Design the sequence.
């Protein structure tokens, strides 16, 4: 598995992220290696993410939204040339890594 991590200052989220990787490895024994790639400051994909968010916001401002299904339809039509892939998630798809990381006794040495 290859993961991409933002290069901003280290924060408490690092322990939460580590806990999520540990959970991934425990639940997926077929994963043999995890490679983390850190972007250089000023050279991240944030601009692309900002562009996607801006396009979604513009599309949502042009239409009325009445249901989650309506949101999915809007998201699929935001960029007709390169349509976004929308994955509908269920409640059990979400994990609380912040709650469980407290039990792992992470220490921050500065």
Sequence:
């Amino acid at each position: 598995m290859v993961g991409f991590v933002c290069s901003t200052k280290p924060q408490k989220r690092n322990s939460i992220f580590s806990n999520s990787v540990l959970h991934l490895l425990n639940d997926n024994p077929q994963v043999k290696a995890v490679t983390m790639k850190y972007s250089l400051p000023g050279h991240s994909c944030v601009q692309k993410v900002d562009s996607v968010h801006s396009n979604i916001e513009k599309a949502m401002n042009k239409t009325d939204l009445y249901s989650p299904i309506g949101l999915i339809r809007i998201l699929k039509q935001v960029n007709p040339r390169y349509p976004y892939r929308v994955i509908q998630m269920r409640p059990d798809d979400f994990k609380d890594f912040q709650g469980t990381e407290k039990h792992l006794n992470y220490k921050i040495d500065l």
User: Anything to note?
Assistant: The longest helix spans residues 46-61. The longest strand covers residues 2-5.
